Each structure stands twice: as C-alpha cells, then as structure tokens.
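User: Hi! I'm working on a homework problem where we have to compare a predicted structure to a textbook description. Could you give me the structure for the chain below?
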Amino acid sequence: MSIKPFPALSLILSMAALFSANPCIAAEPPNILVAIADDQSFPHASAYGYKGVHTPAFDRIASMGVLFNNAFTPAPGCSPMRAAFLTGRNIWQIEAAGTHASSFSKKYKTYPKRMEESDYFVGYTGKGWGPGNWKTTGRDRNPAGPEFSKKTTQPPYSGINKNDYASNFSEFLKAKPNEKPFCFWFGSKEPHRGYEKGSGLKSGKNIGDIVVPEFLPDTPEIRNDIMDYLVEIEWFDQHLGRMIKELEQRDELENTLIIVTSDNGMPFPRAKANVYEYGIHMPLAISCPDIFSGKRKVDDLVSLIDVTATLYELSGVSPPSEMPITGNSLANLLKSGQSGWVEADRSAIYSGRERHSSSRFRSLSYPQRCIRTQQFLYIHNFRSERWPAGAPQKFGNGGYASTGEVLAKIKGPMHQGYHDIDNGPSLKFLVKNQPDPETNNYLQLAVAKRPTEELYDIKTDPGCLHNLVGRSDYYQVQTSLRRKLMSFLKNTKDPRVVDADGGEVWETYPRYSGLRWFPIPDWAEEHPERVPQQDWLEERRPR
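Assistant: Happy to help. Predicted structure tokens:
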C-alpha cells in the first residue's frame, strides 16, 4: 500500500487558514468514521424508543451529537444507495451506478478518493460498494477504498458474517501514519438476510416488545422473524461500540466525525426495495464533539446525500468539480444548536429506485420516484403495468443449468418470482397462507400491481396503506407534490422525465449477477414496441 508523503509546510499553513476561517470546521481536520448497517429501517434503534432492540453504541453517538428523526435514503436498495452516498448525487445522476448490480463509472469520483487526494488515510471493511462490477469501468479497487477485512471471528448465530469488523478497524488504525487523519467506511453485512431462525428467542428477546408494521400480519411467525432481524442490528452495534472504545483509548473520539446510518429499509415485504416509509426512512446519528455539541434531536428532513456534502464541508476537503455533488451540507444545522434549517430549503426530500433484483421479464426495472414532506409521501410509478416485487411466475429454476445448457421453458409454481422481496420466513408465511383471504390481503399489499400515483399521509398512515390519490379533499396536495417532484426531476435531469423515450436508458445498463427468466407479460405481447432494447441481455438470454 503506497503512502503519500507528509504535506509540505505551505499546504499545512493553507489548511490551517481554511479551518480558522470556517467556523464549521475543527482546528484540525477531523477523522471520519462512517458506519452503515445493511437493511435497517427507522425506528429500529433504542435511541428512538424501540423496546425490542438494544443499541448502546448508536445511542451513545446520538447522545454525543445529533439524533435525526427524519433521515432518508436516496434509494431503497444497497448498491444504488451506496453509489449515491459515495458521490453525493441522486441515483438518476450517476448512470449505471444508480441501479442494482451494474457498474460504477470512474468519472464519478467518490468522497474516499477525494479524502485520499487531500492526504487522508482511507479504507473500509465489510460491505463497500456493491453488489456490482467496479472492475469493468477500469477501477483498481472498490469505490469505498482499500479493503481491510483479514480479521475474522466466530459469530453466535449462523447468517452473521465472520468479518471481525472492529478488529479490522484496529488493523486500519495501526497502518495509518501518525500525521494523517483517517476516513474509514464500516459497511456491516448485517442485518441483511439470511438469519438463523429462532436467534431472537435464543438471545432472550421478548416477543411482546415487537411492534409489527401495519403492512404485515401480527402473527408469531412475523414477530419471530423481526426478532431475528433485530439480533443482527445488535451485532452491527456491538462492533460499532468496539470501534468507539478504541477511538476513546487513542484519545481520538472527540475529533472523529462519526456517522451511523443504514442503506435501505428492513428486508421484509413492502419495505426494502420500495419507496414506502419503511423502505426509505433511515436511522441517523452524527457526532463530533470538537465541532458541534450533543444531546440534540432534530426533526428536519435530510437525505443521506446531504451527509456526503457535510463530510466535505466539515473536513475542509473540496468536492469534485467535474461532477459536483448535489446534496446540501448539514454543517450549519449541526452547529446551530437548533432544530430549524439555516440555509437550504428543507421542505422535502427525494428518493427513487430502478432495477433491484432480476424479478421481471428481461430483468426490467420497476422505476419509482418519490417526494417526502413532513406530512405526505407522494410516489410516481413510471411503469405501473409491471409487477412491483417481481412477476408471480418464472421459468424453471429461473436461468441456466449448471452445465451451461438452457433450462426447458417450463413455468414454475405461482408466487415464486417475487425476488425484489428478500426470501425469508415472512415472505414464506404470506405465500404459504395465501389461500386465506386476510393473509392474501397482506401479500397483495407487497406484490400486486400499483397505480401510477400514490399519496399517503405519513402522520396518520406510516404503513402507507391508504392511497389518497383521487380524493377531492387531497387534490391540491396531490397536484402540488406531483408538480414539485417533476420539476425537481427535470431540473436534476432524470432520464425518466427529460428523455423522449421515458428513460429507457436504464434498461441498457448490464446486470452482472443473478439473472432469472420470466414469461412474456401481456403488455409486451400486445405492444412489442414497448419492450426496451437490451443488447447486453441478448447473449445471455435462453433460446
């Protein structure tokens, strides 16, 4: 690993002048520790009052700094969210990196790269950017930086990754030159599925402490599945706690900007891979005692790409000029000591998704964009004729045989194609009990086709069950939010809005893993001209 020389005296003096001139920057460049859980929804941390989970490390960062009640991901899927966070840009502003399991162009410079260019020592452990193919664009390493993942451990339950995240952070700190600040990415692979079934009960959790979201049936099976999920959140938190302790022992905690959040929502039906509340609403706590005071809770609407902008401002590192970031820094909000926003318009945040898993005919995406205000969530589904969670039925095992021969085009059983929902006990329960009308209602909430427009009052309906579109008493809200969303997408050059073909470029980005094959849907048979051209898929399509 190459190490840059200690910066010249002139550079040190210029940086000192910058820090003294900007009240939002510490006297010396802060260290940066970004901790990202994999599939954790708000409000699943004990700092938010959720009794079913114990997260003392997250709670400590919230107490030392600022706890955000309204933080939102730029995308409800891990790969596009990570790319958006790394670049500080919306998913529709980063081409293939804005969809799942594709590529990440070198022209989009990441914040770890900019930090490294400014003499930070950078690295990551666990899950960096991915899934996807970062090599195909000429990158020589993961966009999150050099990897530190050699140390392993034996987790208490199967399904938990063996990466000893905290020990690898220690190895990173040992490798760091003394004179350099650091920028580290802790990408936990928890609480991503799968879980050891029953681990929640084994850990001593109380099934009565579980709050079941309104879009899932309140049954023992669902409650136990949620408990298993919470066990893995606690595993992530334990490693974060060990990292905090190490910083404390090194006397570096006060000058380390620590950001703790998640990439997208919980891996349950109608949550992850959806722009509903449980798909986009994230936990977020930020601390750096040398720069701003703690013990504050903030209700302002923030996007996680705003956090990227904050990293730049508080570090004093200039963001890339060739591909400017589009998030709005939270530095003044963190420093203000108040909940109210200081500079940028905080009346709404925006999020969106394209392809998640390979879950439809020709692996087509399910494009969604949304605008979230303090009270309302408005969603626009650009291809409402498609299945939102995947087509109910697919061919055979969904792809090629292990010998490379094409599988026979025999349709598999119904309800086996919902691959935009992570497989687990909750999905299996809904499918198995689908003949029961009440259970089927919950299944359909997750998998049935949706209208082009959806509108929900989050204050009264956080589960997003009652679509208000078409109601006369919400007409002005609907039209106002539609106009504001489309204006924002146009101004930020979203292909779904500005391209004449409605953004079919999204279907041209190759997917590098897990292709499945589905029957031709009715809309494609009736209107073959509406099937996007996908040269990347032709050579891999069964004949």
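For your comparison, note the following. The chain has 16 helices and twelve strands. Residues 1-21, 398-406 have pLDDT under 50 and may be disordered. Good luck with the assignment!
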